[in-house]
Structures are given as C-alpha cells and as structure tokens.
Design brief:
The strands form 6 sheets. Strands 5-4-13-8-9 form a 5-stranded mixed beta sheet. Strands 6, 7, 10, 11 and 12 form a 5-stranded antiparallel beta sheet that branches. The protein is mostly beta strands and 375 residues long. The radius of gyration is 21 Å and the shape is globular. The N and C termini lie far apart (47 Å). It contains 6 helices and 24 strands.
Length: 375
C-alpha cells in the first residue's frame, strides 16, 4: 500500500497510485539532506509489504559461490559504511520538454524528482567478492531485481535493472538498509535497496531480493525498453518496444543539471535585489564547480555562492546555491531568472529544452528558468 508523506504541503504528487512525487521547490532547497518524509518517490507498482526479519537476498549467476543472505548475515559478514548521495529520476524536469512537443504516457515531472540523503549499508563489491567474482572475469554486468511487481506490455513482472560490473565494484555502490539514520521507509525500498551514486534513479533498485552476475545487461523491460535515450527523430506513435528498443542507448550516469527553487514560478517579489536559491548536481564522480544566474537571458552572469554539507564539494552529492542580483531600475514588470551549472569535467547545461527533447522525456538538463514579477 502506498503511503502519502505527512508533509503534504511540502510534497508535490504526480500520481496517487502508484505514488510518485517529490519535494516542493520551497522544501527542496531548505537543506543539503532531504527529510525522509518528503524525499522524492518513484514507484512503478504497488509498494510490497516485506518483513526485515524474514528478508533474504539471493546472489547468483556467474559466481563461484551463490549466496542467500539475511540482513543479519549482511551485518555480521560485511563492513557497514555510509555515504551521502543525490538520487534523481531520468524524467526530472520532463514537463519543460512537453512544452516543446507533447510527451505521451509519462509522468509530468517538474523540478521535484531529485533528493539527497545519507545512506548506510554494505558495499556491493564486498558481497560480490564473497560470492567469488573476479573483476577481470567474463562477467560484464550485475543485475538487480526488486520485490515490487509492475505491468507492461500485457504482462506482470518484477522491476529490475543492471549496472556495468566495473561500477558494481566501485566502493560507493551500496546495499543500503538505512536512510538519514533511520530504517528505509516503505516507499524507499524497505528493507534493502541498491544505491548507485552518480547514476539515474532507475538503476537503484528498491525492495532488493536478487542480484545476478551477467554477461550482458538485464533483460528486464526497464533496462531493455524504458530508461533509454532514443534518437530525437523517433516518436511514440508507431514505436515497437520489441523491434525498436535497440535504437535507444541505456541511461547510466546523470548529467550536469540545476533547479531554481526561489523565486517561485509566477511569484511576485518586492522591488530591489532578488534572492535566487536552488540546487545543482551532476553524474559519475564529478562535482559541481560553479553555478551562475542571470536576469537578462544570459547576457550577464552572476556567480552564485555554493552550499555544501561539509564546506567542500563531495562527489555524488548536490550543491545548493544562492545568489542576490539586482534587476535594472524600472516599473513593476515580468522577469525571468535562469541558472546554469558547470561540473568538474567542464560539462555545462545547454541553453534550451529543445536541444534535449526525446519522446520519453528523459535527461532534460537545459538551463533552469523561472518567470516572476518584480515590483
């Protein structure tokens, strides 16, 4: 059963059943870590009711020693670690792409499909080593399956995904049972989930029951058909999931992105300097290096102050930003503030959503824009 977060005014609901939503713009940038009760939720089916005490994780496939592990086994056999990371949906800011051209059959995400938490659990790499996996072996991918059941193309199946073996052996990839110091809430994968920092949320499987070491990526619908970047010229009309899926590239790492949280869209603010707040993040092990904001469409940019959990940038964790800029003197009028972020690899957000349009509405990382009235 899906449970609506208690802080309803701080949580934007995009669908009721299954529950999908995330923090309102005002709440999103209030702190570096997102409270569990408003952390963004992406569900593809009904939340399974699971027992932590009875839960078991099976590890098999191309392994020397198949494993069946309880949470007690994980705690006893492997070192517990924690890591702060941002999770974002591949469909984040899809609604802006829909303004370029309609997107059919997908959730109309605004800026709310992103949140950050401290995750606690065990390194996936340690569990794989216990199963007898050699990073240099013929195996190339690690697949995950959750207990949640969804329906696509007229059949029911468990949600699944996979990541490359090299990423699975990275020390930041966790099998997490705790979130911001508390047991995982049901909507976030209780009692066990995968956390793959720097990757899209779709690869971070919740309610984890099965890990399989594979020669190829997962055959699951959500790896083979959904969460792929299809060519811009393709359209949903006439798309054959079985025949046309090879045209899409499997999505993995997030791309540099930002969201403006203040001022709000359509808000009226007093004359004088305008405070601009928001959040910026990127993928892989890159960090955000700068965020700039502009009130004149990018003719003049103002560098924002960056806010971090520890005073310095961390890979996998967003950076909040804040700037105060004064609009030119004049009568009350409509203005637009834009933001663009740059990461440590030199990647910069593109200017327009039209540059990112695809019929699934994935990976919109165009400049963030908010229209407001000043004076």
């Amino acid at each position: 059963m899906n449970v609506r977060p208690s802080s309803a005014t701080s949580f934007v609901v995009r669908s009721e059943e299954p529950l999908n939503g995330g923090p309102s713009p005002e709440a999103l940038s209030e702190s570096v870590l997102t409270p569990n009760e408003i952390f963004f939720v992406r569900n593809h089916g009904t939340v399974p009711e699971l027992s932590g005490a009875a839960h078991r994780l099976v590890v098999d496939g191309l392994v020397l020693t198949p494993l069946s592990l309880s949470l007690v086994d994980l705690e006893a056999r492997f070192e517990r670690v924690e890591l702060a990371s941002t999770i974002a949906c591949a469909g984040q800011r899809r609604s802006e792409l829909s303004e370029v051209e309609p997107i059919v059959g997908e959730l109309p995400w605004g800026p709310e499909a992103v949140s950050s938490a401290v995750w606690s659990g065990w390194r996936l790499a340690d569990v794989l080593r216990a199963a007898g996996i050699d990073p240099e072996s013929a195996a190339a991918h690690v697949g995950f399956e959750g207990a949640d059941v969804t329906e696509r193309m007229g059949r029911s199946f468990n949600y699944g995904a996979s990541i490359p073996l090299a990423k699975a052996f990275s020390p930041e990839v966790l099998l997490a049972d705790r979130m911001n110091g508390e047991p995982l809430p049901p909507d976030h994968g209780y009692p066990l989930r995968v956390v793959v920092p720097g990757y899209i949320g779709a690869r971070q499987v919740k309610w984890l029951t099965h890990i399989e070491v594979l020669e190829h990526s997962s055959e699951n619908y959500f790896q083979r058909v959904a969460y792929r970047m299809y060519p811009r010229e393709m359209r949903s009309a006439g798309f054959d999931p079985l025949a046309d899926n090879a045209a899409g590239i499997e999505l993995t790492e997030l791309e540099v992105n930002s969201v403006i949280c203040q001022p709000l869209e359509g808000e009226s603010v007093e004359a004088g300097p305008v405070t601009v707040r928001g959040a910026a993040y990127t993928g892989g092990d890159r960090t955000i290096s700068t965020v700039e904001v502009s009130l004149d469409g990018g003719a003049a940019w103002h560098e924002a102050r960056l806010i971090d959990m520890s005073g310095s940038p961390r890979p996998y964790l967003w950076r909040l930003f804040e700037a105060e800029i004064a609009p030119p003197a004049g009568p009350p009028r409509e203005l637009q503030v834009v933001a663009r972020a740059r990461d440590s690899a030199g990647n910069v957000q593109p200017e327009y959503p039209s540059e990112r349009w695809n019929f699934k509405g994935y990976m919109n990382n165009a400049w963030s824009r908010v229209n407001f009235r000043c004076g």
